[in-house]
Amino acid sequence: MVQPRLVWFIALKDLKLFTRDRMALFFFVLFPFMFVILFNFLLSDAFVDEDNRLVFHLITLEEETETAVSHQIIAALVTPDESSLRPGEPLVIEVDDYDELRRQVEEKELGGFLAFPEDFTESLYAGGGADIEVVADPEAVYHRAALHGLAQGISSWIGAEYAVRGAIIELAGEQAQAILQSLEGQVITGEPLIGYTSDNTAGDIVAEQPTNYVIPGYLVMFVFFAAALSAEAIVRERQNHTLERMLASSVRRSTLIGGIFTGTAAKGLVQIIIFWTVGILVFNIDLGVAPAAVIILSFLMVIVSAAFGVMLATLVKTDRSAGSLATLSALIMAPLGGCWWPLFIAPQWLQSLAKITPHGWANTGFNKLMLFGADFADVGPELLALVVFTIVFASIAVWRFRTAAS
Amino acid sequence: MSANYLVAQDLHKSFNEHKAVNGVSFTIRKREIFGLLGPNGAGKTTTIRMLSTVLEPDQGDVIIGGYSIKREAEEVRNLIGVCPQELALYVELGALDNLLFFGRMAGMSSQEAREQALAHLKLVGLEERAKGRIDKFSGGMKRRVNLAVALMGHPELLFLDEPTVGIDPQSRNNIYETIEGLRDKGMTILYTTHYMEEADRLCDRVAIMDGGQIIAMDTPHELKAQIGSPDRVTLEDVFLKQTGRSLRD
Ligand SMILES: Nc1ncnc2c1ncn2[C@@H]1O[C@H](COP(=O)(O)OP(=O)(O)OP(=O)(O)O)[C@@H](O)[C@H]1O
Ligand SMILES: [Mg+2]
Fold first, then answer.
1. Which ipTM value was assigned to this complex?
2. What is the pTM of this model?
């Protein structure tokens, strides 16, 4: 039904038109960064000064024995000398009164803390993985995000170590020794654990990095906005009379729709490539422990936005209504879906409402991956939701396309 | 007389309640320039859009080169080239880019599209401006590109919908010469216009349309002869006589 070669040429042509359109390039590529810079500036200011230094409270309920892993971890994390901290670096302290910490969090005196359970070492050896408890005030957004990242960093690091060493441990029968040695190795080489995990998650999360959610937020917003505006493309082909020309030379409508979809997706790809490249090089954003998941999520986001654009295209009649529908939908769905402020600080009802937008799922996915140290499997629901949105949008487009006369 | 290349039979098309084309039948012979004349709103463009398979007739059929526009639209599309009344170009792209794009749309290879595009640009006298953006072109140059695009794929039958509207005499002459050259090379052409003197110069036969119907059809010479001495009357007068109205009301 579609003509793949022609689809590709139409997409290339649309991409070419996009690069010729200075306004579009400015609006969809440069403009978003102005927001990013602005927000980064406004938000990071709150963290850099030392009075606002992030403080992590760690506690373990395990008995202090030679084999208690949690004690080793805490020892490795605790800041040895507060005066040696650079601006923005977190302070880590060990505390020993769990109930008191809880009370402080409940009374909002403290943002949160990490607690290692009584059976931490035991369950680690039992092979079930270790659970670290994150107790946090839901309103202490950054603190909560940072604690999640730290917990995730610790557990994924231990998980990896454990998996690698599993075989040896079984043979040797000296599990504790093995893990402890690996931890001591970290300490001995002078690399604190947090330094190690900063390669993955914890380090950058605790640093002041609003770009880690500001960039994905604007990425989602502007990719969708650009895609929605390509709904104008089909109307423009009609007004340009180029549609007529194509139809008179055997180009099927389905091919044209396919071309617009592919062109829109290609534009979206250009946007995400630029966003991530600039984000990483200029803003030092951190893609988290599963960069592949961030890329797949971005890619799915581009696909769903292109499907959305094509759906709009089949819904509108004129260029103007396409433009206003695109703008309207972008301006409603972006804040609703957490592009303007992070969803995790939003009230619960707004978080639920966000789920009706693809933006909401995409942003939640990015936040999980880039702030909360989530892994591939953790963003399964978000990836799936985007696929479902794509199917819904595409189905509406196909249905409209079939029923629309001429 | 050569065979009929196009046979249009009893075409009807309404928009809402308005009958834009109301029972139009005519034939075009191979290698002929056939003129469709008429005032604004006569139904010329609607007729061309049906002939070029873009618009489905409410009633009637057209056979082009032995294929029906209803049942074998695909085959018909391979035989025709269309130069729409309005510019049908991507003005932000270059002239060559436009020709290449539509060449690829017509299924040509990249090599073939390039060769044809350059040849057609040369034909309309724009080979020097191949890379220039359309929106920087004059009205006449844009029209010439519009025509050049229609030539991609070497169609056997060319539909030209008012190709000379609103342009300078120089571009107009270039277009006349191009069209005559194409006819000499064996192309069949349907040409619409409301410039009667243009039809007089170019067309082998003309049909005069008004209100969605053909009210007269013959060679320009015969049509004029019906109302007086062909040397002294114009097609303008023929129209006036047929409709009781002046053409450019
Ligand atoms: N898509 C459409 N929807 C509604 N009405 C239409 C449409 N296309 C044409 N018409 C109407 O049909 C009639 C014939 O239009 P058409 O464009 O075929 O005339 P024309 O002879 O080409 O005129 P012109 O010399 O102005 O190009 C006009 O009254 C026009 O308003
Ligand atoms: Mg017309």
1. 0.86
2. 0.73
CA–CA distance, B105 with A252 (Å, rounded to integer) = 10
Tokens 């991609």 identify what position? B152
Class of domain A55-183: alpha beta
Closest Cα in chain A, distance from residue B154 (Å)? 12
In this structure, the residues whose C-beta lies within 6 A of any atom of ligand 1 are: B 15, 20, 38, 40-46, 85, 194
User: SS3 letters for chain B?
Assistant: CCCEEEEEEEEEEEECCEEEEEEEEEEEECCCEEEEECCCCCCHHHHHHHHCCCCCCCEEEEEECCEECCCCHHHHHHHEEEECCCCCCCCCCEHHHHHHHHHHHCCCCHHHHHHHHHHHHHHCCCHHHCCCEHHHCCHHHHHHHHHHHHCCCCCCEEEEECCCCCCCHHHHHHHHHHHHHHHHCCCEEEEEECCHHHHHHHCCEEEEEECCEEEEEECHHHHHHCCCCCCCCCHHHHHHHHHCCCCCC
Q: Is the pLDDT of residue A249 over 80?
A: yes
Question: Looking at the partner chain, which of B49, B56, B105 has a beta carbon nearest the beta carbon of A251?
Answer: B105
Give the DSSP H or E segment for B26. strand B18-29
**In chain B, what percentage of residues exceed pLDDT 90?**
69
Identify residue B37 by its one-letter amino acid code.
L
Computed over every residue of chain B, the mean pLDDT equals 91
Q: Which atom of ligand 1 is nearest to the CA of B16?
A: 4
CA distance A281 to A64: 44
Closest-CA distance, A17 to chain B, in angstroms, reads 7
Q: Strand order in B205-210's β-sheet?
A: B80-83, B157-161, B188-193, B33-37, B205-210, B213-218
Q: Which two tokens stand for residue A248?
A: 């008179």
Q: How many CA atoms lie within 13 A of A16 on its CB side?
A: 16
Whole-number Å distance between alpha carbons of A302 and A300: 5
Report CB contact under 8 Å: A240, B90.
yes
* Residue in A249, A251, A253, A260 to test binding to B, most B beta-carbons within 10 Å: A249
Rounded Cα distance between B73 and B58, Å, is 16
Contact by Cβ (8 Å): B235, B223: yes
**Residue A118 CA from chain centroid, whole number:** 33
Distance from CA of B113 to the nearest CA of A (A): 13
| Residue of chain B whose alpha carbon sits nearest to that of A19 | B92
Q: Which of residues 10-29 of A touch B (CB under 8 A)?
A: 10, 13, 16-17, 20-21
| Cα distance between residue A260 and residue A234, in whole Å | 7
pLDDT of amino acid B162: 92
Residue B52 in contact with partner chain A when CB distance is under 8 A: yes
Helix axes B139-150, B169-184, angle to 10 degrees: 20
User: What is the structure's pLDDT at A56?
Assistant: 81
CB contact (8 A) between residue B80 and residue A248: yes
Contacts of B52 in chain A (CB under 8 A): 244, 248
Question: Does the beta carbon of A249 lie under 8 angstroms from any beta carbon of chain B?
Answer: yes
* Domain boundaries defined on chain A: 4-43+214-400, 55-183
More confident residue, A202 or B149: B149
| pLDDT given at position A145 | 67
